[in-house]
Specification:
By secondary structure, the chain is an alpha+beta fold. The protein contains eight helices and 14 strands.
Length: 298
């Protein structure tokens, strides 16, 4: 690795890091037989706000850069949410993998002494999974993308549906802590409310769940009672339809029986490109939680 420099990332590195992600993800998708061929310019338009946010809130952000041409070879980034320390991204360009670059990036961005719980949403890249086990995390379960055409809400519900505002950040955080054990903090919740339509769901005046939907993705979605995910998902679908989305996708933990059965019953299709939750210990109630999509963070 004598031709590689490692340095911290800055706001100017968002687009170069995105380009590494696309190149690595396209290569991996082809290797596992589920080819993905996005339009990078269109994808960047949709994902730029997320990349900016991940950069702004990064606990650690490190780049590997060629010392000859200055090209970004790979990068890794993590976020901290109280005691939850999460690796949000870890990508190395094809052709530069398995040469020690990834190992060093992971050491820098996901140090072993950070976090009460350490978590990763990982691709099925076997080399990366091997590194994550050496980093002290274990696969807990897979996520699957369920994709389908949104429809109107249909059946009536006894839930009161309220558009979330920044005044509701405390309630959203309390719900997330009750379900996930950690909350994403007031700044990120405010960002979510700005970027996506957010809704609180109440029964008899008490908040029992929340859901987010936007033009660029869905989630997070959560319910104190797993059965309440059905009316929440129906409402989120209806909002996706109202926003003009021809298709909506949910990143569903496969331990979430209620959401899986409901969406499969709605004829949603499972994408063959799965991801996995790894963590240093079990945490959260993922039978009643659907994370942020695209699946960079919970």
């Amino acid at each position: 690795m004598t031709d590689v420099d490692f340095r911290r990332g800055t706001a100017d590195d968002d687009r170069p890091c995105f380009d590494v992600f696309v190149e690595a993800a396209v290569d991996l998708s082809r290797r596992i037989g589920a080819p993905w061929d996005p339009d990078p310019a269109d994808l960047w338009t949709r994902m730029e706000p997320l990349y900016r946010r991940l950069g702004d809130e990064a606990a650690e952000w490190w780049l590997a850069q060629g010392d000859g041409d200055g090209q970004v070879i790979g990068y890794a980034r993590s976020v901290a949410r109280g005691g939850l320390f999460e690796l949000s991204e870890f990508f190395v360009r094809p052709g530069r993998q398995s040469a020690g670059v990834g190992r060093r990036l992971l050491e820098l961005a996901f140090p072993s002494d950070r976090g009460e719980v350490r978590a990763i949403i990982a691709t099925p890249d076997l080399r990366a999974l091997s590194r994550y086990y050496r980093a002290g995390t274990v696969v807990r379960f897979p996520f699957v993308s369920l994709n389908g055409a949104p429809a109107a809400a249909g059946d009536a519900t006894d839930l009161e549906i309220v558009r979330a505002s920044t005044d509701d950040i405390g309630t959203l955080a309390e719900l997330e802590r009750a379900i996930l054990e950690f909350d994403r903090g007031p700044d990120e919740l405010a960002w979510l409310i700005e970027q996506r339509e957010g809704y609180l769901y109440r029964r008899h005046g008490q908040a029992v769940g929340f859901g987010f939907i936007g033009l660029s993705g869905s989630g997070p979605i959560a319910a104190l009672d797993s059965a309440d995910q059905v009316p929440i998902l129906r409402h989120v679908e209806a909002r996706a339809m109202a926003l003009g989305r021809a298709e909506v996708s949910f990143e569903v933990p496969m331990v979430n029986e209620v959401a899986m059965r409901h969406l499969l019953g709605r004829r949603f299709r499972m994408d063959p490109f799965m991801t996995f939750l790894l963590s240093s210990r079990p945490f959260g109630q993922f039978d009643r939680f659907i994370p942020f999509s695209p699946p960079f963070i919970l």
